[in-house]
Amino acid sequence: MSEFVRFIALRYFTQSHRKHTLSLISLISVLGLSLGVATLIIVLSVMDGLIAKTEEVVLKSTTHANVYKLIGNFDTYTEVEKQIKSIPGILGATPVVFKEALLMSEKGLATAFLNGIDPEGYKTISDLSKLIVKGNYECLAKGEKCGYVAKNLFEMSEMDDFLGEKPQLFPVILGVDLAAKLQVSPGDVISLITSGSRKTVGEDAVPVSGNLVVAGIFESGMYDYDSRYFYAGLEETQQLLGIGRNVSFVSTKVDKPGKILDFRELMIERTGGFPFAVQDWRDLHKTTFKFFRLQKLIMFIILVFIAVVASFGIITTLIMLVIDKTREVSILRSVGAKKRIIRGIFMFDGFIIGLLGTVLGSIFAVLICFLLKNIEFQISKEVYFFSTLPVQMSFSTFAVVIFSTLLISVAATLYPSIKASGITPVEGLRHE
Questions:
Q1: Are the C-beta atoms of 275 and 70 separated by less than 8 Å?
Q2: What's the CA gap between 271 and 45, in Å, rounded?
Q3: Which end of the chain is more exposed for a tag (fewer CB within 10 A), N or C?
Q4: Which residues neighbour 360 within 8 Å (Cβ) at sequence distance 6 or greater?
Q5: Are β-strands 276-280 and 90-104 bridged in parallel, bridged antiparallel, or unpaired?
Q6: What is residue 158's predicted lDDT score, i.e. its pLDDT?
Q7: How far apart are CA 181 and CA 174, in angstroms?
Q8: What is the DSSP string of 138-193?
Q9: Among 276, 117, 112, 130, residue whose Cα is nearest residue 182
């Protein structure tokens, strides 16, 4: 764009016969566009924060990949552990027994997922031991009493007699929201019932049951885990379920989670392939991440219409500017200015409005995002997974929003610019 076009465009924008009217309309256009830009950036930053926070919690509190045996009993997990640990970049591998169960206390009832783990081995693949807010993680170790005393062993004798179980107390660690549902704290006793037992009373199969003592409570920050997961020692879990030395899978942790596909191929190669299979953290949480990314895309498409609506203010401003500058445009046309120069003048004026709105909106969005991060805005974790609103500003989000807004702003200048370039010398000077 030539210096001449920029000079004339700036004069038209700052000097007008209807200066006050145009200034007011221009101000409204800039403010409308800035609010649209700010809304887009804030919402997308929140969605980026949700995705980043989910990945952080997943990678911190759970494993990066699980090795399954598709056919037969998985009682050779010790050999699988050795093979996986020999892969460069593998930080740890440990067996896990995974089972859905029903938990009962005197004051509550909840379904949850039992994880039977080796307490020492699990430290190499998860930060669970660092997430304990009450009690003691070390209580999961076999034979470790930790000084807790069962505060209230409620009446389960009739159930034990019916199921043919011998009363036993296994230490477990509950998620903070699961403990809240059951209304228990360290030292309280709860009861577990789960399916899949081969034991029979007469000719009828009956489920496994047992009494557990709450040895600790953990908080990962993600409601899905804190409300549904609980942990017990591996040997105690195997004994409780009556499954011998079998496990559900071997969990692993890698040093570079972003390259999990490369590690996945190496794990399959080391274990010999079928009947072994590997499921990585992206597969395990695929639905959650797809939901967030789809929601982010939908939010972007919907909120772009705010910028589109704001662009009508640019159209209005330029149309009024064209009407106000009809005489000046006619003079320029009479001295030889081409149509493309006239179009460039008014397109540059519209671009200035769009640029001002975009810059102001970006600054406003940064301020709001910092405010949201510092005040830790509270949200319903039962709905949004987290108790506080996560915000993450990224260059890519700003770039996409700024580019989209400027593109819409330039598109809004096309009609007024074309109308201006169609003005003839006679049309503006006929009354002079």
A1: yes
A2: 41
A3: C
A4: 30, 31, 34, 37
A5: unpaired
A6: 44
A7: 11
A8: GGGSTT--TT---SB--S-HHHHHHHTPPP-EEEEEEEHHHHHHHT--TTBEEEEE
A9: 112
Q: Burial code of 5-30, b = ≥16 C-beta within 10 A, e = fewer?
A: beebbeebbeebeeeeebeebbeebb
- Give me the half-sphere count of Cα atoms (radius 13 Å) on the Cβ side of residue 14: 6
Report H helices in 277-338.
281-284, 286-324, 326-334
Contact 69, 393 (CB under 8 A): no
Q: Tell me if 5 sits within 8 A of 348, measured CB to CB.
A: yes
Q: Do 119 and 137 contact (CB within 8 A), yes or no?
A: yes
- Out of 13-22, 35-44, 81-90, 323-332, pick the least confident: 13-22
- CB-CB neighbours of 193 under 10 Å: 16
- Residue-wise pLDDT tens digits, 163-205: 444 456 788 999 999 999 999 988 888 888 887 655 444 555 5
Closest CA to 126 of 208, 223, 60, 184: 60
Structure tokens at 24: 């007011």
Give the Cα separation of 244 and 240 in Å (integer). 10
pLDDT recorded at residue 162: 44
Domain ranges of the chain: 3-57+288-429, 73-274
In 3D, which of 90, 157, 156, 159 has the Cα closest to residue 121? 90
User: From CA 432, how far away is CA 422, in angstroms rounded?
Assistant: 19
SS3 content of the chain, % helix, strand, coil (to 5): 55, 20, 25
Say if CB 96 and CB 247 are below 8 A apart: yes
Q: Give every CB contact of residue 394 below 8 A, 6+ residues apart in sequence.
A: 45, 48
Could you tell me which residues come within 8 angstroms of residue 336 by beta carbon, excluding any fewer than 6 positions away? none
Tokens 């989000």: give the residue: 397
pTM of the model: 0.67
